[in-house]
Amino acid sequence: MTELIILLIVIVTALAFDYTNGFHDTGNAMATSIATGALKPKVAVGLSATLNLIGAFLSIEVATTVAKGVVDLQQFDLNNSYDAHRLLLVVFAGLIGGIVWNLLTWLLGIPSSSSHALFGGLIGAALASLGMGGVVWTGVLAKVVIPALASPIVAGLVATVGTALVYFFTNRVVEERKNRYFRWGQIGSASLVSLAHGTNDAQKTMGVIFLAMVATGHLHQDATIPFWVKAACAIAIAVGTWMGGWRVIRTLGKGLVEIDSPQGMAAEMSSAAIILTSSHFGMALSTTHVATGSIMGTGLGRKGAEVRWGVAGRMAAAWLITLPAAALVGCSTWWLAHGVGFFTNDMVGVLAAFAVLLGLSGYIYMQSRKAPVHSGNVNAEWDEDGTSTPDVTASTPRKEALSS
């Protein structure tokens, strides 16, 4: 009974991560469409949520990578209750590492990688539990690290060329007419990115829940992922997307490049092509890295466009520390739960770690209330000092303020 309750806590935590993944990454699909006015903010997040839901059912290749390509399951004797609990604790601590990093970067308006936050958390927890042998380093290198380095560069190059070609072939078209037609095109391209996002990011949580169920003996490690796991993860990421991660949307839509509709469509088509390709091959890349590389590429591909390199530099710094920072949280959480459990019992250890997660989440949320970003001010002019959060007056409607 204790193991079952712990499993339920882990599944709830996994779905909470999926929820944060949803609102943290909404901007990957919809930031440019919102910035150019192709879609109204709330329409954009509603459309994105629906397509994320559908996309989550289209592929399981990435879920397989997460379930079997990061933590070395061969290091655990799952017929031994102690080893089974250790694997369950690795999954739980890894999830907390991912959630904490997602919330912190959301608060700061930094479009960091939810995927790498999750992988970092799992790696840190596995190292704490088993040492270097607990991680499938070849899998991490081939399907996480290399795609992480290559994807923003490839996306940027594709978007640069695409943007340059778009403006070359339409340079005689009246600007107002050009933007009007490309706004219509953006609805389709942004929708494709949302669908692609569902095929990649929702899968990661499916893989984590699969790991937890393998640890408790509810599934064999060679089994297929149950439908209810797919459905729960699809719904969680869709609800998170619908809430709208306005702080990150603002940075991507207004902070990197002042973007027009032709650039927006070029960025979205580049992102969709790369994300769908990676999902097909089971590469759990960061959709954030792809979307950011594409948006920066549109700034380089359009003559006279401004790229805010200071903002890009802060984002790159966050990318570099995502894996180690989330790993540190995952490692610390494992030792907290394991240490408390050693002196009391396993349930108390897990509840202690869960309480810390709730406390940190509440604190970050309260900090975000001091300068809320919502659908009403997400397109405000970017401050000259490069901050992502616009000024908020006392007249901000309470209903809108609760939407960030």
UniProtKB/TrEMBL annotation:
Keywords per UniProt: Membrane, Phosphate transport, Transmembrane, Transmembrane helix, Transport
InterPro entries: Phos_transporter
Region (Disordered): 380-404
Keyword Disulfide bond annotated: no
Record's keyword annotation contains Transport: yes
GO cellular component: membrane
Bilayer topology annotation: Multi-pass membrane protein
Any one of the GO BP annotations: phosphate ion transmembrane transport
Pfam families from the UniProt entry: PHO4 (PF01384)
Biased composition annotated in UniProt, kind: Polar residues: 387-396
Residues passing through the membrane, by range: 87-110, 117-138, 144-169, 227-249, 316-336, 348-366
Record localization: Membrane
GO molecular function: phosphate transmembrane transporter activity
PANTHER family (alphabetical): LOW-AFFINITY INORGANIC PHOSPHATE TRANSPORTER-RELATED (PTHR11101:SF54), PHOSPHATE TRANSPORTER (PTHR11101)
Family indicated by similarity: Belongs to the inorganic phosphate transporter (PiT) (TC 2.A.20) family.
Protein name (database record): Phosphate transporter
Organism: Corynebacterium durum F0235
